[in-house]
């Protein structure tokens, strides 16, 4: 029982720490000079946000529609607790044992909360669609900013591919069971293609449609998770196994289990559920009062994923009939979930399946939209090829349609290559390798601006321009240091677990990025960054030019 009490104490400590950090951030934002103007009209709030964007050197072209809940929904949907339970929890526990949830999940959440704080502080200071690309540039690393942008873009394209292929695989299997036919690779590819195309269409519709989708999906996501947990507790509490299972490092697994995989694989697989919290940052130019709403969305999405995920994962593991016929490994957890719903009747399954599909689809939508907005932000600074087309904003949809199309096509091509190479192996399978690549790319992209900020602090050049209203005061350097150490350590672990071919491909792509950045650096508009003590402008665009552009995109 000692390990049980220790594990629950760890969960409680992380929960209390998250509340304390939230209270500090709330107090600091209240003490800042920033005024949210929430009591004023939408036009007044829009003008405030537009002038903030103009100070950074950009015209307001995207529609400011997303509110606080929509921005939160973008990050929360991209993280996706339900998708984690269906597609990642089983392989993670098979690799690391049940203790990966009881002990590993709170530890992961502890570091994820620290990293979300660092990202939230940067997002509060620079609420721009480029996210880590602009953050790195503001902290003094112009070349590294371009590298961060490319890594972030590639990471989210891969995340879109992995999310959609997991979901399409599940749909393929579920439809095959319901209709009684054998699923094939062609049907899997067709379902995945349909998901990519519908997500691209939703991204191209702009913030108005996206805000409504993510608001609805967030409520649906939370209610479904709570309903699933409540149904399991009501029908079969206290479950098959005692709570001690989650804190037994030896685990309870038969000899046929694939629990021989290293514990670190399980941790890194579960860490995927904390990768994507910065999705709200790419909506900054479409969010009302982004200096407050975006950082809170980044932070709270991680906290709620921690709480919802812990409760859901614990209930699932305690009820999973490990060792029963057909369930000899935690790797078949998703199959048990499907079998359980089949046992409740096909009618119920027909009702539940569309909800699951919508929730997982919205997760892929968040990843695709994040990648498209990053591509748009870089194209606007001429940091990518064919920048004029990629940075064009549709006057009808108020969205960077060219960037959306390019991101979707890249994801489709990669998905086709992945499917032709063999999808979903065990242990060192392609699915695991792709998730490791996602973690490496996105975490490196986020680590670059944090490292540059730490360097600026050590050199004593932190100015008012680098500090937003969402701050943690004396805790800020601690959070940045912990975040950087965690990003380096976890990225190193993921690199160590990559197989030879994937590692070689990653190295070649990284070298190509470096060569391209160096070749195009002198032509980037970003080299014209203007700095004062209170502001940082990323372009030399004049106000009259901004007004001329903004006349094409009336907001009211």
UniProtKB/TrEMBL annotation:
<feature type="transmembrane region" description="Helical">
    <location>
        <begin position="431"/>
        <end position="452"/>
    </location>
</feature>
<keyword id="KW-0812">Transmembrane</keyword>
<feature type="transmembrane region" description="Helical">
    <location>
        <begin position="6"/>
        <end position="26"/>
    </location>
</feature>
<keyword id="KW-0472">Membrane</keyword>
<feature type="transmembrane region" description="Helical">
    <location>
        <begin position="219"/>
        <end position="240"/>
    </location>
</feature>
<protein>
    <submittedName>
        <fullName>Amino acid permease</fullName>
    </submittedName>
</protein>
<feature type="transmembrane region" description="Helical">
    <location>
        <begin position="302"/>
        <end position="327"/>
    </location>
</feature>
<dbReference type="Pfam" id="PF13520">
    <property type="entry name" value="AA_permease_2"/>
</dbReference>
<keyword id="KW-0813">Transport</keyword>
<feature type="transmembrane region" description="Helical">
    <location>
        <begin position="397"/>
        <end position="419"/>
    </location>
</feature>
<keyword id="KW-1133">Transmembrane helix</keyword>
<feature type="transmembrane region" description="Helical">
    <location>
        <begin position="144"/>
        <end position="166"/>
    </location>
</feature>
<dbReference type="InterPro" id="IPR002293">
    <property type="entry name" value="AA/rel_permease1"/>
</dbReference>
<feature type="transmembrane region" description="Helical">
    <location>
        <begin position="186"/>
        <end position="207"/>
    </location>
</feature>
<feature type="transmembrane region" description="Helical">
    <location>
        <begin position="347"/>
        <end position="368"/>
    </location>
</feature>
<feature type="transmembrane region" description="Helical">
    <location>
        <begin position="495"/>
        <end position="517"/>
    </location>
</feature>
<feature type="transmembrane region" description="Helical">
    <location>
        <begin position="65"/>
        <end position="89"/>
    </location>
</feature>
<feature type="transmembrane region" description="Helical">
    <location>
        <begin position="109"/>
        <end position="132"/>
    </location>
</feature>
């Amino acid at each position: 029982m000692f390990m049980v009490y220790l594990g629950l104490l760890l969960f409680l400590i992380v929960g209390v720490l998250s509340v304390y950090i939230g209270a500090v951030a709330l107090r600091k934002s209240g003490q800042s000079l920033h005024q949210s103007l929430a009591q004023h009209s939408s036009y007044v709030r829009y003008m405030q946000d537009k002038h903030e964007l103009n100070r950074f050197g950009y015209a307001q072209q995207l529609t400011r529609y997303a509110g606080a809940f929509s921005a939160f929904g973008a990050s929360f949907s991209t993280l996706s607790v339900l998708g984690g339970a269906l597609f990642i929890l089983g392989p993670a526990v098979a690799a690391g044992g049940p203790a990966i949830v009881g002990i590993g999940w709170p530890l992961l959440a502890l570091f994820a909360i620290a990293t979300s704080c660092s990202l939230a502080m940067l997002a509060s200071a620079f609420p721009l669609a480029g996210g880590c690309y602009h953050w790195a540039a503001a902290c003094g690393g112009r070349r590294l900013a371009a590298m961060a942008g490319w890594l972030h873009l590639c990471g989210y394209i891969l995340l879109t591919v992995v999310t959609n292929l997991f979901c399409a695989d599940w749909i393929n299997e579920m439809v095959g069971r319901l209709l009684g036919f054998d699923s094939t690779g062609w049907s899997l590819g067709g379902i995945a293609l349909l998901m990519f195309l519908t997500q691209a269409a939703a991204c191209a519709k702009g913030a108005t449609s996206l805000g409504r989708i993510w608001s609805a999906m967030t409520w649906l996501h939370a209610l479904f998770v709570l309903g699933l947990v409540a149904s399991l507790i009501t029908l079969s509490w206290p479950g098959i196994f005692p709570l001690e299972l989650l804190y037994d490092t030896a685990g309870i697994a038969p000899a046929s289990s694939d629990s021989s995989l290293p514990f670190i694989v399980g941790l890194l697989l579960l860490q995927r559920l904390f990768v994507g919290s910065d999705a709200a940052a790419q909506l900054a130019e479409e969010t009302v009062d982004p200096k407050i709403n975006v950082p809170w969305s980044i932070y709270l999405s991680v906290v709620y994923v921690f709480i919802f995920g812990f409760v859901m994962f614990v209930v699932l593991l305690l009820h999973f009939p490990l060792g029963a016929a057909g369930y000899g490994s935690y790797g078949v957890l998703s199959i048990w979930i499907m079998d359980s719903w089949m046992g409740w009747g096909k009618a119920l399954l027909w009702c539940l399946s569309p909800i699951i599909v919508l929730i997982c689809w919205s997760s892929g939508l968040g990843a695709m939209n994040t990648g498209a907005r990053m591509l748009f932000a870089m194209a606007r600074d001429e940091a990518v090829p064919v920048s004029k087309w990629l940075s064009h904003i549709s006057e009808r949809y108020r969205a960077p349609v060219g960037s959306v199309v390019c991101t979707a096509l890249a994801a489709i091509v990669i998905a086709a290559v992945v499917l032709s190479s063999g999808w979903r192996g065990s242990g060192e399978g392609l699915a695991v390798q792709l998730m490791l690549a996602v973690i490496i790319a996105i975490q490196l992209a986020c680590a670059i601006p944090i490292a540059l900020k730490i360097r600026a602090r050590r050199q004593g050049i932190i100015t008012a321009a680098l500090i937003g209203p969402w701050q943690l005061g004396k805790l800020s350097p601690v959070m940045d240091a912990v975040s950087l150490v965690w990003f380096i350590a976890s990225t190193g672990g993921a690199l160590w677990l990559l197989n030879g071919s994937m590692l070689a491909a990653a190295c070649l792509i990284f070298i190509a990025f470096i060569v391209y950045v160096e070749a195009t650096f002198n032509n980037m508009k970003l080299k014209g960054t203007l700095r004062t003590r209170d502001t940082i402008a990323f372009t030399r665009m004049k106000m009259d030019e901004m007004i001329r552009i903004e006349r094409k995109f009336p907001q009211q």
